[in-house]
Amino acid sequence: MSWDLYDFTNERGESVLQEWIERERLSRRDIGQLRQKLDMLVIAGPALPPKLLAGPIYKHIYKLIIHGDRMLRPFLCKGPFNMETEFTLLLGAIEADRELDHDPREAENNRIILLGNPARRCNHERYK
Amino acid sequence: MSDTSDALRVELRDPEFSEGYAESFLNSYVATQIKVIREQRQMKQSDLAREVGTTQTAISRIENVNYSSWNINTLKKLARAFHLRLMVSFETYGTLPDEVGKFTQESLQRAEREKDPGLLERIGPQRQASEDAMDAAVGVGAGAPNPWSNNLLRMPQSWDQAPRIPQPGGLSAT
Predict the structure, then answer these.
(1) Is B100 close to A30, i.e. CB distance below 8 A?
(2) CA dist B31 to B5, B53, B64, B69, Å?
(3) Chain B interface, mutation test: which of A5, A35, A125, A126, most B Cβ atoms within 10 Å?
(4) Which among B28, B15, B23, B9 has a CA at the least distance from the CA of B94?
């Protein structure tokens, strides 16, 4: 069974993850590693690949771990509408010197916004 | 799924993207297959650790899609513990989308040597006919299901029946 993936959107309806990738000018190599983890999540789900998801690190928030040129740590949650079949990417984050540049509480806040307004997410599309 | 494969096929034309993707997939593949085969053998991490002479913590570390520091010697020891061979092979990027698409528990499982269908003895048509005749003589097949009737592969009863493997310089006398 494959999983459905969504991206939290900003107020203009754009994926916050795509926006993050462009703002941080992530390398194509790092985007390749991120893409692989997301493909694996969609195809195999969270249970088959061991430790694909780390967490929950705060309430409902998990993170993906990407050891690339930069230590990408995108935050996501199961559901939040169907916990058995979907994930929503909530916020991009990067770790440096063991410190995250964003607090997982921000991701939890995005999740709460989404629960109140289901239109604040879009189908996940492959990042440019 | 084919949408993913088609999109990935295009993305993999980018050298940097393809290297990042393929290296991450390799780490995920190794970690997941070790876990899947260990569970297939009904082994705990501590059982596998004992077999390969390491610690449970080391097995836990290697069963992690984010781990990339394994080496060939460790993988060879794991292969031995699983009664499997290790294969290391260089591959083209074009084969990757299909591998990604069929990444399932079943596709990662491997039969141990003792149950390996590829090592079962192949029975020729002549011997099959004589065995069918023998089955008929003892009444198997007359209404009763014959568990062997469609089975053309059998393990040798003992190694004495296994074909001799020619050695350099001819077969040695036993």
Answers:
(1) no
(2) 22, 18, 5, 11
(3) A35
(4) B9
CA distances A121 to A2, A16, A18, A23, A49, Å, are 19, 9, 12, 19, 26
A39 in contact with B at a CB cutoff of 8 Å?
A: yes
Report how far residue A113's alpha carbon sits from residue B3's, in angstroms, rounded to the nearest whole number.
31
Give the separation between CA B97 and CA B150, rounded to whole angstroms: 36
ipTM of the complex: 0.94
128 residues of chain A, pLDDT tens digit each: 789 999 999 999 999 999 999 999 999 999 999 999 999 999 999 999 999 999 999 999 999 999 998 999 999 999 999 999 999 999 999 999 999 999 999 999 999 999 999 999 999 988 88
Q: Do A48 and B105 touch (CB under 8 A)?
A: yes
Structure token digits, residue B103:
């990444």
Contact B20 A28 (CB under 8 A): yes
